[in-house]
Amino acid sequence: MGVYEKLVVVITGCSTGGIGHALAREFAARGCLVVATARSLASVSDLHDDPRFFTHELDVSSDDSVRHALSTVLERFGRVDIVVNNAGVQLELRPLGIDVINVVPGAVKSNIGNSALASYNRMPEWKLYKRFGEAIRARAAYSQTSKSTPSEEFAKKTVDAVLKENPPAWLSLGHKAMIMAILYHMPLFIRDFLIRREFKC
User: Fold this and answer.
1) Residues 100-155: pLDDT tens digits?
2) What pLDDT score was predicted for residue 118?
3) Domain range summary for the chain, segments of one domain joined by +
4) Mutual angle of helices 19-29 and 151-162, in 10-degree steps
5) 176 φ, ψ to 5°?
6) Which long-range contacts (CB under 8 A, 24 or more apart) does 94-99 make?
7) What does the buried/exposed string (b/e) look like for 86-114 if buried means 16 or more CB atoms within 10 Å of the residue's CB?
8) What is the CATH number of domain 3-105+150-198?
9) What is the pLDDT of residues 10-56, one digit of tens each?
10) Among 46, 52, 54, 112, which has the minimal tally of Cβ within 10 Å of its Cβ?
11) In what helix (H) or strand (E) does residue 100 lie, and over which residues does it extend?
């Protein structure tokens, strides 16, 4: 199958050790051409020389960066078949003819806890947040327990669902996924109350 006959899958947030990286590897293993994006190309360097991947820098919080990445992909491959928006910014793609599947993950083993803690530890010590320091650290590591779903398993099941002829509009996978799905639909004030109670802040 030639490069241009393969499904073109764009994935945001593909840094090594994360969910996006595992999804990129799984889509590639299924014969897709994967556009693996991250804010820094250094964080996807292990994919750079593999012909199943096209790596590209993308900061989803910058409209210019999104436009540049999209135009580069369309210029190079002529289309985008699947977008996996793993970087936490909601993009409305239905007007572009792209069906949207909402994936609400439970606890999935990834590098997110370490990244969050590293970011928190680099912040200046603000008196306002000092009393919440322990709760912030606990929240950063909350999804990273021995019961967390391995990212490879999560990726395999997600790709299975996405590549179906009639994929679901909603997909919730991973440890405590049902709880996360319920929280997702709760009013914000109830979610905030439950989270404050869980982390005692």
Assistant:
1) 777 888 888 888 878 877 877 787 777 777 788 888 888 778 888 889 899 999 99
2) 80
3) 3-105+150-198
4) 50
5) 65, 25
6) 99/167
7) bbeeeeeeeeeeeeebebbbbbbbbbbbe
8) 3.40.50.720
9) 999 999 988 999 999 999 999 999 999 999 999 999 999 999 999 99
10) 46
11) none
What is the largest distance, in Å, between two alpha-carbon atoms of the chain? 59
Predicted local confidence at residue 133, as pLDDT: 81
Burial classification of residue 44, based on how many CB atoms lie within 10 Å of its CB (0-12 exposed, 13-18 middle, 19 or more buried): buried
> What six digits make up the tokens of 152?
């490879």
Phi, psi angles (nearest 5°) of residue 103? -105, 120
Bridge partners of 10, per DSSP, are: 35, 83
Q: b vs e for 142-176, b when ≥16 Cβ sit within 10 Å of the residue's Cβ? A: bbbeeebbebeebbbebbeebbeeeeeeebbbbbb
d(CA 201, CA 192): 10
Write down the pLDDT at residue 49. 94
Dihedral angle at the C-alpha atoms of 127, 130, 132, 136, nearest 10 degrees?
120
Q: Where are the beta strands (DSSP E) in 18-139?
A: 33-38, 53-57, 82-84, 102-105
In Å, what is the CA distance from 150 to each residue of 9, 157, 159? 22, 11, 14
87 near 13, Cβ under 8 Å? yes
Pairwise pLDDT comparison (135 vs 157), residue with the higher score: 157
